[in-house]
Structures are given as structure tokens and as C-alpha cells.
Amino acid sequence: MSEAATTMLTGNAAAAWGARLADVDYVPAFPITPQTEIIETLARWSAAGEMAGRFVSMDSEHSMLTAAGAAAATGARVFTATSSQGLLYGFELLYTVAGWRVPLVLVNVSRGLASPITLEPDHNDVLAARDCGFLQIHAETCQEVLDSVLMAYKIAEDPRVLLPVIVNLDGFSLSFTREPVTLPEPSSVSGYLGTYNPRHAFIRGKRPMAQGVSVLGGSVYSYFRYQMQLAAENAPKVHEEAAAEFERLFGRRYGLVDDYRLDDAELVLVMSNSFATKGRAAVNRWRARGLRVGLLRLRVLRPFPRDAIRLALAGRKAVAVIDQNLSVGFGGITVGEIAHALYDDPHRPPLLSYVGGLGGKEISEGEFEQILDDLQFAASTGVTPPPRLLYTEAEAGQMRTLLTIAGKEIDR
To answer: Which among 25, 32, 63, 121 is least surrounded, fewest beta carbons within 10 Å?
Structure first.
């Protein structure tokens, strides 16, 4: 295990280092807060000759993703990054690129979607893309951002998968937070990723291929969509192999899910991304009081790791899912998917649903205590409280005032 010294990096810088260490060939880019630091760093390295890959500024996220997909189709190793409205601006191309089966890596720096405008994180941007065919890895720490970019190439380029990957990190709370990050030696990364032999490439001189052609009738279209599903179903095994080799080379282990103090836990929090760190702090407080509480962090959201979730939550007395997203008119997004994973388990635990952290809003200790009270109540009675939006009484009063003001405005 050969590694360089540990250094302090932001989440954005860690993402850029992941691309550099992967020795990417091409970086089409377009700036958007809070992702811009990633492409500024890559542009600086490219201009200084410190990175061999070609860096090109595009005129929009739509053209950026078009260029990324086209370059990957020729056999280039491609990296790009975006955030929030930028991801939605290029949304059409997510489906196109995934349908091309090209293994590029896209870093998304999550930021709440307008309107109203915010620069703080939640996950509605990346979860809007959950059905497009990109695999999704969600990082909690800056170290995990870098490592996940490397693992994403290993998984995406495997011939059993050949699907693009989104690596997600939270804007501001992680993208601009400096944490200790160990940079693997380039030679070690080269050994991990191996020689890139893009057998999927469509433009290879002697054997040209057509892509994106029109098809009449549903059978051909269905064939390609089913192939994507089969490839996604292969991804957990490929991830397991990639994670085992990564641990052997670099000493860090990543699963489809990440468990914290779950061995004897009766009550469980389920969270994802950087706010899971707040959940770990709450678990530590409760453990100090003698309470058997643990945390399950969702790390890979596509393919959805239903088997790993079922195994991790089996035998628990109650489970609370804190979604940092809101499907308006429904509630949290991932709680529904977890409920589906547990549905046919006759001994499934009560499943509680919360929405918090929208736009980076703090989840307070008091709100965590309310969740704990609800978990204990559900564990003892089997009665599940209705889904809750996490906010304080003062904030509830403010919302009522705003609604009243809005009502008066409408009445005029």
C-alpha cells in the first residue's frame, strides 16, 4: 500500500483530484455554483501542463453533456461536473448518454432547486435523475468523494456494466469544507484502474458504428432498455469486487450502504450524504445515554441496494428515514424505496418518515430528540407517526405568518 501524505482538501478539490488521478482524456465543462471550483482546478492544471487530459469550456450544460457523451463514445475517458439547475438544464442528455452505454463519470454538487433561489444543498437535483440510467454514488466526506470517483471509473468501465456514473456530494457543506484527504500515488491508481480498453467505442476506424438511430415499433427499444436494467443489476457485484480491490490497495472499504454502530442497534436512523455526519453525532449522544441506536447511510442509490438494506434493517424495532429532499405532494423520496425493499418482510420494523435539511437547513438536536421519541413510541406500540417535516415551533409560526400574508395578497 503506497500512498502520498495526507493533505487538506475541499470536496470540490477532492473531486478534481479524482479526475486527475484517473488520468482522464477529456473534460468538457461549464461553471455553476457551487461546482465551479472543480473545473477551475482542472483548468489550472491543464493550462500548467500538470494534467494530460484536454480541458474545454462549453457554452451550456446541455452542450457539455453532449460533448462528454460523444467523446466517451469514441473511447475517451471522460470527466465532467455540474450542480442543481445545471443538471436539469442538461437533463435530456442524461437519458441519451446512458442509452449510449458510455462509461463516463459526472460529479454533481447538490444544491437546492429554484424557486426560491438557494445556494445550499438538498438532493432533489440528483434524485430527479435517478431513473435516467446513470448509476449513483453519494459521498459523505471529502476522502470518499475522491475515492468514489476512482471507483466509479472502475465500475462504469467494466464490460458487465458500461453505464455512466454520477458521484454526488453536498454543495457548500462538503464542497467548500476542507478535510484531511489522502491522495493515492498515481502508479497505484493506474494499477487499480488498469489499461483502459474501450471495447464499447462506436467510432474506431475500421469498425464504425451507428448510435441513437430511430426505431419503429417497441420491441427494439424495449431490448435496449432491458439491457440497461440487466447492466444495472450487475453493478452491485462489480461494486463489491471494485471495493475489495480498493481496500487491498488503499486500505479503505466502501459498501453499497455504510453502517454505524448497528451491531446491536434496536433503533436506526437512515440518512445519506454529508448530513449523515449529524446523524452520527446524534447516535453518539444517545449511546452515551445507554440507548441502542445506530445509523445506516445510503451510499449507492442506483442501483438501489435493496438486499443490503433488508439485511441491515432486519430485526430492528423501529427505523426513521430522514430524507434531505421533498417530492411535493408525496414527501421524502428514499423512504418510499426503502418501504418497497422491506415490503414482503413479515417482520419488517415500523418505518418513520421525515424530511429535513432542505436547502441546507440545520437539523437541530431538538429535532433529533423528537425523532428519538417517535422511534421509541413506534418500537413500544407498533404505531407509526405520520410523516413529518422537520422544523421548530418558531419556524412553524413563521410559516403560518407567511401563509397569512400570502392569503391577503391573493384576496386583493
So the answer is: 63
